[in-house]
Amino acid sequence: MMATRASALPAGDGWSYEVKWDGYRAQAIKNGKAVSLASRNLKDITRQFPTIAAAVSRIRADSAIVDGEIVAIDSDGRPSFQGLHHWSLEGLSIVYYAFDLLHVDGRDLTKRPLDERRDALRDAVDGSGLLLSDELPGTPQQITDAVRQLGLEGVIAKKRRSTYTAGRRSDAWIKVRFAQHQELVVGGYKPTAESFDSLLVGYYDGGKLIYAGKVRNGFTPGVRTQLFGAIRLLETSRCPFVNLPSTRAGHWGEGITADEMTLIRWVRPAIVAEVSFAEWTRDGSLRHAAFIGLRDDKRARDVRREQP
After folding, report:
1. CATH topology (fold) of 181-302
2. Is 77 left (phi over 0), alpha (psi -120 to 50) or beta?
3. Which CATH architecture has domain 1-21+134-178?
């Protein structure tokens, strides 16, 4: 089940609120002694997160399907999305925040209201090592102020009586991000002598890859080296963006002119990156985009522009 994006939290007694964790969405599955973790695109990621798999084995049920988020926590106690790719580094710990329970001991809970599912989830994960994504107290404004002050990504509002509708975006779950984020597909890069200066990114619209801008900032030396090694393997002679070249470079330098096209190296659109940015420009380009991390839990073809 996926949330619909909004600019402000809905208010009313029928809504509850949780932190929007900046990590990998994953289902934790226990079936007797067998446990597994599945990413948002149903990729098996059990071996990547052995400590979480061990905690899943301690769920207080013979069988269960839990929905939640895998999050890297840094030495200051803050979520670090890039840490998910470097979780062996000193000072990082990997945790799983559970926020929903879909099945337990043969019972399908997806048609039960959220509050009932939460109660069953609390019992199931108690003492397992999985963390509960607790409901936040306070008014929407108080919650917004507190989560902003903590520097967290955002808040999810959920209707208390809502059922779980798998595989689609629902207005029973509303997400509000306090920083602008967007998942985008890497389709090219501007090379330097040893690596790359910027990535060219875009999103799919009606099966066509639309160029959205350049990403120059946010790369640590280690991430840049790792990413360069990956994109070099995907090089192709053909530009994958349907709206390039641009007629002009643009006020903020987002466009790619015909002359610049000869300098760009194109890659097959297979890598998904999450970026932060200041705003969308009038011509549909990102302004002040910065790299946050790779999203290998999402298929490139599923990337769409998110509307505010």
Report:
1. OB fold (Dihydrolipoamide Acetyltransferase, E2P) (2.40.50)
2. left
3. 2-Layer Sandwich (3.30)
Q: What is the pLDDT of residues 183-199, one digit of tens each?
A: 999 999 999 999 999 99
Q: Tell me the residue ranges of DSSP E strands in the chain.
A: 2-5, 15-20, 24-31, 34-39, 63-73, 93-104, 107-108, 131-132, 154-159, 169-177, 181-191, 196-205, 208-215, 235-236, 265-267, 272-276, 279-280, 286-287, 290-294
Whether 30 is a known active-site residue: answer no
Residue 20 corresponds to which tokens in the numbers above? Answer: 């929007």
Residue in 20, 30, 175, 214 annotated catalytic: 20
pLDDT at 281: 81
Q: What homologous superfamily does CATH list for 22-132?
A: DNA ligase/mRNA capping enzyme (3.30.470.30)
